[in-house]
Amino acid sequence: MAAGSISKRRKVFVVHGRSLRARDAMFEFLGALGSHPIGWAEAVRGTRKTTVHTSEIVTSGFAQAQAFVVLLTGDDEGRLRKRFRTKTDLEYERNATPQPRLNVVFEAGMAFGRHPQRTVFVQLGRKMRPFTDIAGIYVLPFAGSRKDRELLRGQLEGAGCSISAREDWLKAGDFSRPVHAE
């Protein structure tokens, strides 16, 4: 079936960083739910332009999809510069800590700012530097367990996605290796 003939309610735009293993695992899982994951290349094609700005690509992904999964993986490392630290700063402010790529943070902001009820934040890896502007917004800590998969499925259904899961949806996508081990 061509991507154009797939119902929008089955399409999920996936925002991700450099962890292609994490992206591929999420694409496989979403496919097992009967969803059509949209990646960067498909979002570019959706602009129908040859020269395109990043914001247009992200907007194209939003226009094509019912929901947006923002994969938060620790592809970068960050810390507060020494001259700005205080004695009360937490460990992640003092030591290099895994954090999402800044383009992922930017695109997450675009998704949440435009479509908060259709945006799902999924964190792969437990130890990660938070981006404080989303403090209080639910971020699904995801390791691929049955509970994690059921929660993500529920969030996608809550975002209006049509789910028609294959029998293997509880096992599809390898989330077993630590994300930071790449």
Structure description:
By secondary structure, the protein is of the alpha/beta class. It is built from six helices and seven strands. The strands form two sheets. A five-stranded parallel beta sheet has the order 2-1-3-6-7, with helices on both faces. Helix 1 links the parallel strand 1 and strand 2. The longest helix is centred in the first third of the chain and has 13 residues. It is globular, with a radius of gyration of 17 Å.
Sum up the structure in keywords.
182 residues, alpha/beta, Rossmann fold, five-stranded parallel β-sheet, two-stranded antiparallel sheet, 6 helices, globular
The biggest beta sheet is recorded as:
5 strands, parallel
Arithmetic mean of pLDDT: 90
Structural class: alpha/beta
Number of helices: 6
CATH architecture call: 3-Layer(aba) Sandwich
Weakly predicted, low-confidence segments: none
Number of strands: 7
Shape: globular
CATH class category label: Alpha Beta
Rg calc: 17 Å
Strand and helix order: EHEHHEEHEHEEH
Q: Return the domain count.
A: 1
Q: In angstroms, what separates the terminal alpha carbons?
A: 33 Å
User: What spatial order of strands do you see in the largest sheet?
Assistant: 2-1-3-6-7
Binned, the helix content reads 25-40%
Oligomer: single chain
Write the CATH fold name.
Rossmann fold
Strand % is: 15-25%
